[in-house]
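Our preliminary data section would be incomplete without showing what the modeling component actually yields. Below, a chain of 517 amino acids is followed by its predicted structure, encoded as tokens that our downstream tools consume directly.
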Amino acid sequence: MTEPPSDFTATEGRLWQAFRHGDVCDLRTGVPELDNPNTSRVWGPERTVRASAVARLLLDGPQPVPGTVCALKLSGARISGSLSLAGGTVSPYVELHDCQFEEQLLMPECSFTTLRMVRCAIPRIEAARMSTQGDLHLPQCTVPGGIRITDASIGTDLLLNQLVVHSDRHGRAISADGLTVTQDVEAELIRAVGEISLRSARIGGRLSLRGSSLRNPTGRQALNAARIAIEHTLYLSSGWESDTLSGTGTPPRGVRTRNFTCDGGIRLDDGRFGNALVINRARFRLTAGQQLSLRRIQTPELRFTPQAPPTGRIVLSSARVGNLATEAACWPGAGMIDISDFSYVSLRPTGPFPLRARLEWLANATPEYSPEPYEQLAAALRADGMDEEAREVLLAKQRRRRETLPLATRMWGYAQDLTVAYGYRPGRAAVWMAVLWAIGSVYFTRNPPEPLKDGEGPTWQPLLYALDLLLPVIDLGQDNAWRTSGLQQWAATAMVLAGWVLATTVAAGASRLLRRN
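Predicted structure:
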């Protein structure tokens, strides 16, 4: 069949011939204001193609002109009626530019080779369980009624850059639960109002939301991607755009930079990221009940460097991370962080993050004492060869633990802290021993005791006598050869008690260090 069907209009006839030749049917005027598909201006019959005619070409089109390949390449058209391709198989290549759809696009369980729609205005896209052998492109499209691509399978890339999408009646802007994409999902600089749902999605490359704006004013989540699996990296970071270009990385001079912004919760619970999760130059404006939830995620690297601390709660409980790259200014205050059972191999500061700030970070994350965050930070510091800092963290842990103990045990803890810092500063014991020895030696030099038996016993040596009193167990033969009374007796008793306290605290500290090692 070489001529278009008799019921085709003249415009549809042009499209028929272009389809057979694999050429573009361009109905645009060349005037940007007149070619904008989002205009309220109604395009006339010279730019109108019926949805039924498009469906006929895609599902049961004519044979190509010899030496060519059929393709639907349509620009600047108004597609009247509802385009339904449900359950069909579309073999030709499809590319639409600046087209205006009158009604929703229905493609559930439809199979394509490649589908590209650029700068199109579409009331809604219904494409659950659709599949493509190649790409699915929707850059710069406007979809006010939401997109549904649940359980869809994309053979190569999914491109959504600069998409503008609003929610459906269920509050979802993009429903993509169970989505499978073999390569990358590029969703940079998009503007979404409503929830983006990517639960249990599988992405073979990266998912980039650089420079995007997500907002869900009526629900809890702006991005719900629980159980997502991304083989490479998830980017929640900045992007850039100009009048002719958009991209990531270092922006060229004179272009606009857009941060990633999110007004609503983010849920990435149980997510798996093969290379990294990057949260950089991002803003999270969370209300009561909304969270940045990263429960049980697994990734070799978490880069958490938002432009400002999130206004809501950050939850990293039971997450498993290799390198944690962050800094002090990125985290909210007390009670807004949950890092229970959060483990990481190393902590790589991207800016100022001294030990004092790290301890404050742990205190903010543990309103009620929990040892695990302190032990995790100490282990990461030891792995980086920072043993002194690791001991300071463990000392801070003991001081936090002391606050939870009964009064008598707290007093014993204060004694251990004052003398040997719970064993993490053993040199203090030698200092205390030397001070007490010197004080005892001076006192007993000026106030020597009487010999127990006249003419018997060792020669009086106040230095050895004071040392014998201080050293428990060890007998230098001095303390039992002299008789004390009055203040001498009280001084000797105090020396003996001080020696036992020092010895006990040193033993307790040493035992604690040996258990830790």
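The CA atoms of residues 204 and 417 lie 53 Å apart. The longest strand covers residues 298-305. Preliminary results of this kind motivate Aim 1 of the renewal.
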